[in-house]
Fold these 4 entries.
Entry 1:
Amino acid sequence: MTESRFIQIESMLSELIRIVGNTNAAVEGLRDDVAILKKDVAELKIDVAVLKNDVNILRNDVAELKIITRNKQKDIEQIKEGQIRLETAMTGVKEDMKSLYEITGEHDVASRSLRRRPV
């Protein structure tokens, strides 16, 4: 082999060594990135687990609120029914009061008439 050929091979080897060094540095950077991603994924898994737990708690709360709402609706219906009964009873009381006023008025007129008659 000639010396120019050796120089060419030496140059190619130097270039390959430089490329391998760059590749190794890039691989090291990728390893660091993968480690960071693994850590981030682990944190996300924890966050998802917490969120799942929160969702379950919210579901239970919503179920309880639905039960409470149904009970309140029943209470409201009972109150409305009681209100209707009271209104009906009040109508009767009003009519009775009108009758009493009429009777009282008639009685008052009769007693005044009796007072005016000579004895």
Entry 2:
Amino acid sequence: MKTYLLLVFWTLFALPLTAQLIPDPYLLKEGHQGLDLIYEMKFDAAEAHLAGLARAYPEHPGPPFLRALNRWWQTYISMSTRAYYDFIEGQLDESMSRNEALEEAPGRHKEYVFFQFMAHALEARLFAYRGEWFSAVNAARKLVSPMKASLKYVGTEPEFYMLAGLYHYYVASYHEFYPVIRPFLSFFPDGDKEKGLAEMVQAANTTSIAQVEAGFFLGTIYLDEIGQPGKGLKQTQFLATRYPSNTKFELEYARALVKAGKYAQGEARLQAMRDRYISQPGFGTRNINSLESTTTSHLMIQVYHYLARVRLYGQQDFEGARFFLDQSDHMAKLAAVDESIYLTGNVYLRGLIADEQGEREAARKAYRRVLDMEANETYKTLAKAGLSRPLTLAD
């Protein structure tokens, strides 16, 4: 539930900048260059570039926010990498401190609202990663004012279409699927899933840097929320093609291929990631984190999970699937990941394999475990069905 709670406030992975939102052309150009370095996962180069920009613009909230975002991306692909937690928090504080001057500045309110929302959103996510849930909820509640203010700017910039879209979709989704957090969501205006999707599509189809973020979230929603892998494939392919060195975008594209039933293409991309991973010293005996590589043990949890899906659904190779499920679980141990939807998925797939092989009691044992683990509604529904009857690959 904690993971789902913070997803409501998880906004962009990078800051979209437009000439209207940021009037200084040099800051705009250099900000774009910094964003490209972040997306290319050249984290140290991005930090050097953005630190210089922060010195050149000592009063603007954008550069420190981007510096926080850069190290957040590095943390995101390797959850056990805690080296930059304090740095990220410090840069967010600096960004919000600088942003105060924009609130009453003539013609700058839109800019103020945007940075205020973004800083508190990333702050909430950071506290969640730390396990500081009271602080995370408090930061999330601070989103109410800038969120309401941002809605009046929808239609003026692609960025605000995206913010409103994410907000409208996720608030409605969590009201629908996770009633336990409805009292908390009462702090926020009502959501609207269809409206939210339409707003994100508008942002994704508008030529601006916002296409990257909108495409990422649309891809995730299409793949994991509403089951439209064809549309997810289009969005994830765009990102993977534009930023081929971004391993998260590469993984999302591979996931989309597998979910769309394009097993051979998906397997090729997943195997390429695996080949890079196993070429690193100590790959099977230690945690490889984002301080040394962008192909991390944490990402490999998902890579191996989807390789198992390829073997199971695409080739009906039960032993091959079990091998990759074991590898996925091993990556979780190396990366110190105790709870993950992919670990739950691994258990479910073992139950499915057992049912396919006529091992009914082993299957039922796996399904019971699924119900005791972190699981989405799909896995819970399947596991409950599996306790009453044998499941097949068609399920």
Entry 3:
Amino acid sequence: MGSWRIPCRGSGKGDLLTRLAVVISRRAIRAIALKRGRVVWAAERAITTESGPGIALSELASERPRGTRCVRVALETDSCQVKILHGFPRLSGSRLQRAVSLQPHRWFLKGPTALVTAARWSDRSTALVAAVESGLLEEIVDGMEHAGMEAEWFSPVVCCVAQVLPDGTHERLAGQLAEEIEVRRGALQTIRRRPRSEEALRPASIPALQALGDRAPEWVGAYAAARTRPAIAFVPTALQSARTRYQRRFTIAVIAAGIVAWIAAGLIYGSRLHVESTRARAVIQRLQPEVNEILAAEQEMGKFDAAFGTVADIDAGRSRDLELLATLSRALPDSVYLVSISCADRFVDIAGYGIRAGAAIAKLATTDGIEDVNVNGPVTLELRDGVSWERFAAKFTWNPETSQ
């Protein structure tokens, strides 16, 4: 096993960044780098039982193209388990992942360590599920950290291959086996494994791999991982915990930022209010003498208005009284004289003497401007200077508007 570089011929069109992907199996690691859709670097390292994938990843990291730190990791069939479940109860995407993660041994073979699972719907009734041993995934993550690389995602290689192949049935080389996969609209429909045959996928099916020669079919998985984004991806347990902590910290940070923003807004509003209040008080203090003079003048004007109103009321009342006296003089005969007149608003009480008091009151009731005439007490007979006089008292309502 070795490594080699292929020069990038021509400018081409496509991705301007170099995409680095590795395919990890139990026996070897294959790495490939693509730039503008062309293979610019490919390498392969064997994995020994004693060293594990750490040393192989370190060797590949020392030879990788410059500026490629993020790596897309695809796991071969002997490193992970992939199944297609037909007729699975319809659930949401998050509930499907939760259902598979809670009961992984219901669909996958038991291993010595816990399983990390991933799941996604292929169509309305078909679910694509996958699992990998947590210990293997953590070992790969540790090896990449020691090699100075970061994993962009982890995914089964067959899910990546399905996205670069046309619809139909294809064979893919997977170590000593050949996988027969059915692809429809970029999604896996069936997976069948059988012994490796000579009718596997040819290099001509992937033009970009022709430069790798006869071993091009073995690099289809690495090419697909570098070229596309997988349908499902594994998340290591440590990364899940880190994401949970990050989300919790992010939520706390957002809440704290909101509180700080509200406090800052309150402080800014309070400071502006204080500044405006200080300015207003200063303006009021500066204009206080002029304001006091204006208020004093307004008070004096109010007193003048009250005095003028009183005088006007007195004049109006005097004119009404004179008009009332004139009306009474016209209404009462000369043989009647009044001894008292009291007026409260429009209600008038009179008392007097007359030779014929009844006739005087009757005439008073027919006078314009005098309404509701009533006798206010009994009529008494008094003898004065040898003449009989009738004393009477009456009350009525005075309406100057109807008086003529």
Entry 4:
Amino acid sequence: MRTSSRGYLESVEFARKNMAKKAAFGFNTGLDLVRNAGREEAGAITKRIFGKRLLGGEYTISAKRARELADLGGWKTRIGGQAGNMANDAAAIGVRCYVHSASKSEKIMRLFRDGAMVARKGRFVPAGKAGDSSVPPIHFVLEFPGDRIILSHDECAFSMKEDGEFYAAIKPLAKKIGCFAVGGFHLLQGRDVEGKVAGIAGRVLGLKGENPEMKIHLEWGDFQNVKAMEATLGLFAPVCDSVGFNEKELERVSAYLRLRGGKYGRAQKMLEIVQEVVVHTSEYSFALSEKNQKGKLENSLLFASLASAYKAVNGRAGNFAELEKMARNARPRTEGIREMKKFERIGFACNAAFAPSVACKPKITVGLGDCFAMAFALTH
């Protein structure tokens, strides 16, 4: 396994050749209101809302609580949601992005980069020209060293509201789409979550039928509803080519499925449900696959680690030239190197690859997992 700047440089060249030129993203876009809060302030705010101090994770809040948080002031505005983050970061690299956005609020649309398109009147138009006066779904983000807390009031995601214009506009383009990267299921609420997930799975499979080569990647999330997690596991994950988790998400879904063993053993058992598993942490990432070869997986992991590190340091995603420049001096995290030695001693019954994270001093933490997921999913 490559752990020098040469490995990161080679991954950039790999990505230049293999990254999807066009990709689709769904299903959640929103507006992030971000506050650089210390742990004490973050704890005080969450205690006021929930009656206890929270250390990290994502939680849903009421409209009343959302108004109270907005009144605090001092928030910085960013694009939000898994689909919003992945699409914006892909556009920075040069990918033409077709975005499913249930909300087309001008406050969200104006934050998209050039190259991000949304559906209007049967065709895709630049996101910046598609905005309306509607109220956007909001995610309040409390950032502090080492973690963050997300407090979401997102009616579109709570109901998995769909953009009918998107499906009509994307179907004629399906044969040219290299990857459809999706997320947002973790915020789904309500009574008929199974029917909602099944409907979306059917529509995505319909697009896959138009283009069997289109890769479907699901980025998991911090599920708020057990029934939504059950439905996503049973109805949507099996139709995907790959599923991405952070370490907490893998731990939670493993506990629900009663999977035994350490994180690597549990991840391997997930291959009974999905074709490929990728796990990303702040220190390292790994991928297990029944189909893709180790070399491809490793290059995608290294490139994704580099892309997310660039965003962490600069507060935005980088293009190929910027990523190549960073790669020349990139070094792996010491903790990742130590974990890699453990990984190499395991006898996996599948294709397996590992990459230490790039050592850096992060400026931001929100959206780094989405950036990693995009860079991984679109490059193999």
